[in-house]
Amino acid sequence: MLKEIFWGEAIKLASPYPYVLAVTVDREGKPNAIGLGWWTYVSWEPPMIAIAVGPKRYSYECLEHCGEFVLAYPAEDQWKGAWHCGTVSGRGRNKLAEAGLKTVPAKVVKPPLIEGATVCYECRVVERMRTGDHELFIADVVAIHGDPGKPKHLYSIGYEKLAALSHDELRTLARR
Amino acid sequence: MLKEIFWGEAIKLASPYPYVLAVTVDREGKPNAIGLGWWTYVSWEPPMIAIAVGPKRYSYECLEHCGEFVLAYPAEDQWKGAWHCGTVSGRGRNKLAEAGLKTVPAKVVKPPLIEGATVCYECRVVERMRTGDHELFIADVVAIHGDPGKPKHLYSIGYEKLAALSHDELRTLARR
User: Is the pTM of this model over 0.90?
Assistant: First the structure.
């Protein structure tokens, strides 16, 4: 039976959520990445994505500065580094290097792709809006990369843990 | 190795995504529901959620009219009805009744809750923005309901199939 529950409880009960990294570059051109569960596709044609980032995050400054990001789906074997990116600030340190995540140049945008990821969307911010304690950055997807050989990517469970899953794997459980 | 791939391919590779219903009421007060994969949390405090809906959808008219929705996580045993809501229009028909989904009155908003769901968020639209071929409705969460006894809810695989998963279940696969 449905009963009233708290926000944090509901968010946990409604998890897991796909866990991604938003890769930016700072004023010095140093790549930075933030772990995100709050994002969605917002247009099919043209392809568009929105991400929600708190204004105190270093990635917020980087987004304001460079106006571009790469939305990367870290693959299963990158879980440790991906988790690291979601738990410490990139201010004054090289989070990606610490996380053991290698980057490769993107095709269009300044922030790099994450080598070995499942999918990387190159995104250019076209609009933004304040939503409560986060800012929503709305972006055009200007190039798309993927590796069908690495379909297993990460999901966050109540923002406390990461586990990996692929569409193929879940398909075996599919009801329709 | 990452290589350039098409948008549709990437969206499939990056799936599964949590699958929800947005429940509205039309001008006659009849409840309607649309299946959605494009939504996200956008603020922790105050609690806020955004959903992306195409302007040709009947739910778009309903949202314009009533300015409220219930974001419901259908539970595993509701997969057939939940899928039905994502594949036909509610214009001129009672989709929820056809889908075998029972409703119960919400606490604050006009649209009802889905009985037997995992989580239901009561939402009031506070802002909207056009994003390509969809409209983003930004909403305050004004009441929250859940059933910890029904944690298994639905995920869409490339928007072609539904499968069920719970946070507990995925936790057994968790890396950290």
Answer: yes
